Fold this protein.
Amino acid sequence: MNLKGELETRISEALAEAGAPPGSGALIARSNKPQFGHYQANGCMAAAKALKINPRELARKVLDNLDLSDIAEPLEIAGPGFINIRISRQWLAQRLTEVESDPKLGIATPETPQTVVVDYSAPNLAKEMHVGHLRSTIIGDALVRVLDFIGHKVIRQNHVGDWGTQFGMLIAYMKDLLQDDPEGFQAEAELGDLEEFYRKAKQRFDADEAFADTAREEVVRLQSGDPATLDAWRGFREISLRHCSDVYRRLGVLLEDGDVYGESEFNDDLSNVVEDLRAAGILEESRGAQCVFLDEFRGKGEDDADVPLIVQKSDGGYLYATTDLAGIRYRQDQLRADRILYVTDSRQGMHFTQVFGVARLAGFARGELMLEHVPFGMMLGKDHRPFKTRTGGTIKLTDLLTEAEQRAFDLVSGKTPDVDEARRREIAAIVGIGAVKYADLSQNRGSDYVFSWDKMLSLDGNTAPYMQYAYARVKSIFRKADMDESQAVGEIVLTEAAETNLAVKLAQLPETIQAVAVECLPNLLCSYLFELAGAFMTFYEACPVLKADAPAARTSRLMLCLLTARTIKTGLGMLGIDTLEQM
């Protein structure tokens, strides 16, 4: 059961019975002060204002029409009209006893699962991934894992940039190298560092007009399907994707080669997109370019100019908008998507607003298809500027991960120098990569955040090492007891406040996961796990486990420990972060 959802449903019904206007919501919030209640219903405030009556009077009418006796203790009206809800210990104990044997920890599969397409990572090929690709990759991966865990059909789409001018430039540079070195030794050596190869080709392109013309000619050959040029393009694409796969493996994300569906896949459909927009009567020519003008963007540019969505340039070339429109149609018609998520940085907000608007206007997206931009802010350095090297260059993502593992290794070696080095390296990889991912995912994705090695590797605060340590600490209880976890079987009994508060937090996992899935905010799960770890620490200090007064209390508390460990492991798993049995 989604506890918060159940409370919202029942209180909304009671509000309606009390005469509240249609659509009045229960506005259920978790309480940070359990002594006043675990949840608080605030919906009477707005509804009372609409009815022009005292909120406390409306709250009393709501209680007259509300029966939560199977879930909560007697309800209380507080303040100007809030309703405090304290979940009953009996219900909690019964609920957690049921969840204990459920591999999904009480998270129910929806009656009508959706097909959800998640477009994420999407690096431009021909050069290596850099830190700018980190957020899209790990936020998208977390959403994929959460949606899949709930029971939706999730289709991963890595919409890589694998077409266009940069490939003409690289192919021309490669041919120059092979002309001087037919055996290809120099070319092979330079391709060992794809980033450097791209940099040299770009320098040539910018400095040598004749070379630039040759590169553009290669683009024409590529677009016309010249076999030799296509072979060279496939070679670069394969090398680039190999680099990406290595990064995905190290990051522990789910993207695979079969998830790649790049710009090149839509190339043959782009002219159809333009013609279909023309047939729909919404295409206009502006300064030689083919555009669609949405009413909401009329007069929104500089000097009150209209802001169009350009789908074909004056020279006949296509743009990202054209490809994205083709992609929406493909994902709706071929993949049968019910919902499409685009995980990109917030600077693309207007682009997607226009693309979604045009897709609906043109009939490329049916009305019930959910199109959602999932924007995120920037990763900043200590100077609060985009995160770069000391010399101002872009940081390769693989270099960032290597440094994370080394810093974690130094940390682990300092705390456990007697552990075998191979084991320390293994722990460091899990801790270091987990720290980088959690530091990002724990932020509200809409905000910029400052990257800090010290903060993300700290064993204190809302960090991956803290959560991994919390998990290991729970597991250590069973080692101290010298018992197998399967022996922790019995009935959960809640007598102490710390037990009850931990039980409430454990029961809140389904509503948390549902909120993450709906709002696409992984930080909600991070906050939940951090609060759960805190509730467990309070419980562990207040309630003896192995030295409990009675065997029944010992069993009950061991079951709470086991549920806490499973919940932390499951939650971190949905964030793509591994746990350790010992730290």
